[in-house]
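Protein modeling request. Please complete all fields; requests missing the sequence field cannot be processed.
Requester role: graduate student
Desired output: 3D structure, C-alpha cell encoding
Chains: 1
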Amino acid sequence: MNQVVMNQVIRYRLLLPVLASLFAIAPSSAQEVDEAPMGEAVERHLSIDEPFMPWMQDPERFELELGDTIETREVLADDLETIKLGNLVEPIRFASGIADIPDSTVESLGEILQRMRDRRNVRLHLVGHADNRPLSPAAVEIYGDNEGLSRERAGQVAEHIQTALSLPAEAISYEWAGDASPVATNLTEDGRALNRRVEVEVWYDEIRERVALEEFLVPHQISTVKVCRMETVCKLRYVDGRAKRARVQNLVAPLHYESETIDVDQLYIERIEQAFANLGDKENVIVKFVGFTDDVPLAGRTERIYGDHVGLSKARARRVALAVQDALDLPTTIIESDGRGAIRPLGSNQTQRGRALNRRVEVEFWYDDPLQALSDEPQLCPEDSAAVTVTKVYDPSWGEIPVIDFSDGSPVVPAGYAALLEKALADVADKTNARLRFVGYTRNERLARRTAAVYGDDIELSASRARRAMEQVVGDMQLEPGQTEFEGMGYVHSADVVNAGFIQGDTSHVAVQVVYDELAILDDYEGVDITRLTREIEPQNPLGLNLMRITVDGEPIDDPKRSSSDIQRCTDVALAKADIQFGFDSLRSAPRLSVNALPAKIMIAGKNDPWSAPSTVNFRMYTNYSYFIERAEIRVFRVKQSLEAEPLEIINIDLDGEVAWQPLTRTVAGGDGELAYVLRAYSSDGNFDETEPQPLWLNYADAGKPATEAA
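Delivered output (711 residues):
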C-alpha cells in the first residue's frame, strides 16, 4: 500500500516541470481567471421575472375559468302604492227604484280626471249601497236582495259615467256592499235616503323608489371545449311575495256560478272555515279565490264594464272573497282574489253543462313553509313545465248519449245506437286517442248467492255487464283495437265522490262515454324566478361522507355534485357517441391558382442612379388545373394603379410555372416604394383567371429619393 502512494508522488513531481513550462510560454495577452462568488457557478432556475414563451398550456390556467357567475348590485326598484281619494264628489243618490245621476257630478268627475291626467293609472271606483228595507216581490225576482240592488245601481252609474266621459274599460270599476255600511239610521225615511247611494272614489298609483339588491348573470365566454367538464345549473329565487310559501289546492270544491249571480251558500262558508281550522298549525295562512269563466263573448253592459273575460273573472272572484270575508269576519290581509279568464276549461264550452262547469271560483290556501326555502347554492335546473296526460269526456253539443239498460241480465241497445256513437267519435276525430268507454253501474241491493259466487261483488258484476254491452255494440262498428275500454263502478253512481259523496242508484245500466287524451301543463315553479348559468364542474372527493347520490351515465338525478368517476363515465359515453369521419374526394376539389415572389422586394443599389440594375425576383405559380391553362403571365402595376390599366411590365411564365424577372429601370423609377403584381392564366379560348394583387417592395440601398427615370 505504501509502494502505491510512493509511485503517485513520483508522478506528480515529474509533471510539475512540464506544467511550469506551459504557463511560462503563455501569451502576455491572456487574462487571469477570477474565482466566481460562491453560488454563481452552479445551475439555477430561470427567474420568474424573465419573460418566456410557453410551448404548452398549463392545465391549472383553465381552473380559473369557472364559467358563469352571479353577482349582486344595488338597483332602484319601483313600489306601486294605490292612493284612494274619497269624498271628492257628493254620493249619487237614488230613490227606491230610480237612480238620480246629476250632470254636475259627471262634469266634476271629468274635471278631476283632467287635473289628474299626469298621475299614473287614474281610475274611478264606485261602491253601491242600499238601505235595509225588504224588497218587493217584483224586485226580489229581479235583484234577489239588497246586495243585488246595490250591484245593479253601481253598474248603472258606472255604465253612465263610462259612456259620458268616454273612459276605457280598465279606467272604471265597481263593487257593492248592500246594506252593510249605512251612513245614517234606517229607521227614518231621510236616513234611508242617505243610505241609498253610490260613492265615487278616484284611485291612482304612485311610484315609490326603494333600494333593492338584484342578482344578475355575468356570462363567461370559454373558448375551450371541455367534454363533461361543464354543467348548466340554475339559481332559484322566489319572486316578491312568494318566498317560502306553500300552496294547497282542492281543499274546497270550486264554487260554480251562473252568468250574473253568485250564490255563496252556508255550506261553502263552512268548508272554508273548516279548511282554516285544518291549517291552524300553519303560519301566515291566507285564502285566495281564483275566478274562471266560459268563452262566451261578452256583450252589453258586461263587455263595457269588464272589457274581457279576465276582468269578468276577477270581479266574480272578488265578489266571493268579499262574501266569505263578511261571513267569517276575516281581516283584509289574509284574503286575496284573482281572475284567469277562460283558460283551463273543465268541460266543453259548446254545451250548457260544460259552460256551467267552466264558470267557477277555485280556492287556494297559502302559508309559510320552512321546507319551501330555496338554497342559495345553484341547483339542478328544473325541466320545462311538465305535462301529464289527462282523459277528457266529450260532451256532444247535439245531446247526451243515452245509457244502455239491462233486462233480465241482458243489455237493451236502442236502435241506431252504433250510428250515434260513430257520430260522436267523428266529432273528436282530431283528438288524441279518441275511444269509447263503457262504464257499468248496478243498483244498491244484495247480490244473489249464485251471482255472488260467480262475480264476487258489485264491482265485478258491473264490469262484466259493461264488457257484454261493449261487445254487442262494437260488433256493428268498424273500430280499431284500443278504441274501446270498459270498467265497473258498482252501486256508486256519483262522478265526484270527494265533493258530492256516495250517490247510490236504483237502476242497473251501462253509461257510454266518448273520451280522449289531452296534455295538461303542470307548472310546479309558479312564482319562482329561474336563472341558468354555466360553470365548470368541481369533482367531489370520492372518499368523503354523505355521497349517497344517483347518477345515470354520469348525469346526476337530483344533486348537481359529481365525483371523478361520474365525470369519467360521462366522458366515456360522450366518446362512444362521437362520430368523427375523414374523407377525401378528388372530384370535389376546388380550383386553385396562386403565385409567390422570392424575394418579395426589389433591391436598388444606387441613389438616384438611373443605370443601377435592380435585383432579380423569382416568381413561382401553383395551380391544380394546369391541363386547362394555355399560357400564364405576371402583370406588374404601381400600387395605386387600376388593374384594368396598362401594366408596367408583363412577364410570361414557362411551362414549369417559374420565371426569373429583373425589372427594367423605368419600372422602378418614380415609384413610391411599392409595386403590385397579379398572376393571370389564360385558356385556349381566351378566358382567364386572375389572382388578387400582392405587394412587391422597393428597397433602396441609400436613404434618399428613388431613382429617376432614365432619359
